[in-house]
Write the structure tokens for this entry.
Amino acid sequence: MDNDFEKGLQELEDLLEDAWNVPFLKNKMIVDGSKISKCVGELRLRLPGEMKRAKELIQNKDNMIQTAQEEAKHMLERAKKSSELITANARANAENLMERAKAQVEILVSQQEVLRVAQERADAILEQARNDAIKMRTVTVNYVDNALEESARSLQASMNALEQAKQSLTHND
């Protein structure tokens, strides 16, 4: 449809180029009125279609933005749920490890040497639990950061596509 509209504009320009200049009158020309009227009439018929197409492109842009926003919202919700689940699992694992460490300490308390060994093992288990909790937290934070970055990239790609569509509309006018 763009080609038809552009073709009509080109026909008008060609008619003006082929027109005769009126002697002694600056910027006055003699043109074939019926050809000009015909071109203008054809352009009027094509213009509503062009406007409809432009409205459709704008609607598509709005739909793309809404879809991208909804997708980002869902990704954020999934990341939040995953973060909560990972954090809950890390806490449960840490508590489980702590309970096991305490149980082992209570069993080994009977003798001095056994007490020392038990204390060392408990310390190692607690340190491992802390390290595991730190690792789980780091994994959770990285996962949420990645999900947010992916959402941002998706939104940026959508915005770039919208900008290109907008520029395409602007350049086609």
